[in-house]
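Troubleshooting log. The previous structure file for this entry was overwritten by mistake, so regenerating from the original sequence record. Sequence copied from the archived sheet and checked twice against the printout by T.R.
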Amino acid sequence: MLIGVSYFLKFAFENNWIGPAGRVAIGLIAGIAVVLWSERFRSRGYRIFSYSLKAVGIGVLYLSFWASFQVYHLMPSGFVFVCMLVVTAATCELAISQDAEILAVFAITGGFSTPVLLSTGVNREIALFSYIVLLDLGILALVIFKPWRRLLILGFLGTLLLYVSWYTEFYDRSQIQPTMFFATLFFGIFAAAPLLMLRQESGPGTMPLILAFVNAGTYFLQAYAMIMEISYTEMAWFSLALAAVYLAINRLRPQSADTAAENNLRLMHLALAVGLVTVAIPIRLETHWITIGWFVEAAALLWIGERIKSDLLNVFALTALVLGVGRLLFFDNFESATLIFNTRMAVYAVAVAVLGFVAYRASKRDEDQARTIAAVAVVAMNALALRALSLEVADYYSQQMTSARPVLGNWRIENWAQMRSVEIARDFTYSALWMGYGAMLMVVGFWRASAFVRWQALLLIAATIAKVFVYDTSQLDRIYRILSFVVLGVLLLTISFAYQRDWLKLPSPKTPNSSSGAA
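Regenerated output below.
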C-alpha cells in the first residue's frame, strides 16, 4: 500500500496536481498520522508491527523536512534543523516511555542523518561537531538510564562517519586546534562508554573491549595524521600522554556486575598504554636509539610485571624484547672507526644485559614456561655477545685490508701477499675467539653447576672443531694451523680432565639423578 501510494504521489507531483508546499504538508501529515496510527496497534499488543509503522512515519518526517529545504527551498536551514531535532527528541521520548530500544535506534539514526540531509557544502566545523558532541552526550545519558549498550556502538559509528566525511573534504593544517579539541572530546566520551557498559546487568563482555580498542586506535590515527605534519617530537609526547591517560583510566573502578569483564577491560587499558609507549619510541628516537628504547622498555615492563604480578606485562616485555633483538639484527647499521668502545658494542651490551635480566628473573619462577624463557634468553644472550665480538674482529681486519690496498689501484705482488696475510690472521682470530668464548662458557658452567651452560659451551666448541678441521686445515698458513690445533687440543684436554676429575661431583649413571642429563 505504501509503495502504491508513493507511485500515486509521484504521478501527481510530475503532473503538478500538487504544489511544493502541498507535497511537504502531505509528507508531514502522513508521517505524523502513521506514528499515531502505530499506537493503535501497540495498545492491542502488536508491538513489532507498531515499531515498523513508527519507523516509516519517522522516516517520512525526516525526508519531508529535507525536501522542504534541499529540494523546494521553502524553509531556512536553521528552522528545518530545529524541526529535525524535535523529531529526534520525540522519538527518544517514545523509546524511553515505551521501553523500546529499537525506537532509540531510529532516533539516533535520524540524529546523525540530520547534518547530512541539511548539508550545503559549506564548512561549518564548530556547529557540526558541537551538535555531534551533544548528540553523543545524549546517547551516554540515555544508556545510563536504560541497559541499551548497543546504542553506544551506533553513536561511535555515526560520529566516526561524520568526522571522516568532514575531514576528507574540509580539513587543512590551519584548523588543527579546533579539530584536535573536538577529536579529544569524542575520544573522552567513548573512552567513558566502556566503563558505562560494564555497569549494565546484561550483554557480552567483548563489546566494551572492542569499543575501547577501536576508540584508542581511531583517536591515535587522527592525531597522527595532524600532528606528524608539525613535529615528530610533539607526536611522541602525545603518544606518551595518551598512555598516561589509559593508566589513569585503568585505576578507575566501574563497579561492574561482571568481575571478569571488568578485569579484561583493565587489561585492555593496560595493553593500550604499553602499546602507546612502544609506538612513541620509534616516533621520537632514531636509528639505534629505537633499539635501546625497546630494550629499556622490556626491562622496565618485566620489573613492573614482577612487582604487580601481571603476566600480561611480562608478555609485553617479551614482545618489546623481540622487537629490540629483531631491529638489532636486521635493521641497525653501525659505522664506527673505534674498536670495542663504540656505539654498536654499547647497544649489544644493553641487549645482553637485558637478556641476562630476563633469564635471571625467569629462573626464579618454578614454572616450565618460565624455565623455557630463561633458557632461550641465555642462548640469545650468548649468541648476541659472540656476534658482537665477531663483528669487532671483522671490523679490525677490514681496516687492516683497507690499509693494505694500494692508493691508486696499482696492485703489486706485495699488496696481494699482505692482503692474504690479513685474511689468514682474521680466520685464525675467529677460531681463537670461538675457542676462548667456549672455554669461558665451560668455566661458567662448572662454576654455576649448570649443565645447560656447559652444553652451550660444548656445541660452540664442536662448531670450532668443525671449522678447524674443514676450513683452517686448508686455508691457514702452517704456523696458524699449528696454533689452531694446539690451542684446540689443550682446550679439549682441559675439558676432558675437568669432567673426569669430577670437580662438580656430577651424578653417575647409576644414581637416581642421572636422568637430569648433566653434561
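Residues 423-505 form one domain. Archived copy saved in two places this time.
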